Amino acid sequence: MPDPRDPFFQHSWLDFEPPEEDRANLGALQTILPGQFKHAGVAPAGPAPTPPPHAVEDATPFRPRQRPPMALLCVLHDGDTGGEWIPLRMDRHVIARNEGDIRIPHDAQISGRQHAEIVRARLETGGYRWFIADLGSTNGTFVRASKINLAVGSEVLFGQTRYRFDAGQPAAPAPPPVLENFMTVRPGSSPLLRLPSVVESAPPSLVEITATGDGERIALIRDEYWLGCDPTHCAIVPRDDPFVSPRHARIFKDENGRWRVENNRSRNGVWLRLTQRLPVEKMCQFLLGEQRFILKVIA
């Protein structure tokens, strides 16, 4: 996990949720000893020799020290935890539907020319850092997270249902009373006063984002809510969403008055739309259109 004390990691609003181990497991290279053959129809010349005893680890695994480090991008298969791994060796890779370095031609929700980029940048303190950034796409770039601190305008995806967080409005102070009519006030008489109406406070809310605009607005008048497909345990139930778990996520106000979202180990996770470039220390999952990816940094 990224170290929040790292001056280059200023995203306290987000905690990464790593994928399952098998998503990052690239497999181990098989050692072929003399006398062993992998090709069918070729018989070994004799019995395989006994492997040497396990060597004592006395050195750090080799890593390049002069050239920049590489990363790996996995384009996940639909409904699967595996996918196609692509080595990233250039400083910048653009993902889009029709153009760019990595193309997903069959997803109409991905922007045609440029949707998102993966960038390797050299730091002033030395070393390199990988970043993910949206390139002004219509449908956004979402990153999977276990915990999110909501800010005004934050867009969060549960299953295939998307919400925007609105902070609400505080109560406006009442302006001074105003005379209904200008008149001369005689001693002992009372002028008619018109008291301006006070603007009442509006609570924060979650607004469903649909293909045609804003949908249902859910006022957050309590300090805690559960979101999921089980109405017996959840106050917020997305409609017709088979990808939402029974108790998918917890939405609550913490002791500092900030609204937060916590994933409840749901199968399909919680996703936050990026509004600034995101540094990646080791690994993260992100979503463009309906295509999921894993970015793995080779340290």
From TrEMBL:
<feature type="domain" description="FHA">
    <location>
        <begin position="88"/>
        <end position="148"/>
    </location>
</feature>
<dbReference type="InterPro" id="IPR008984">
    <property type="entry name" value="SMAD_FHA_dom_sf"/>
</dbReference>
<dbReference type="InterPro" id="IPR000253">
    <property type="entry name" value="FHA_dom"/>
</dbReference>
<protein>
    <submittedName>
        <fullName>FHA domain containing protein</fullName>
    </submittedName>
</protein>
<feature type="domain" description="FHA">
    <location>
        <begin position="225"/>
        <end position="277"/>
    </location>
</feature>
<dbReference type="Pfam" id="PF00498">
    <property type="entry name" value="FHA"/>
</dbReference>
<dbReference type="InterPro" id="IPR050923">
    <property type="entry name" value="Cell_Proc_Reg/RNA_Proc"/>
</dbReference>
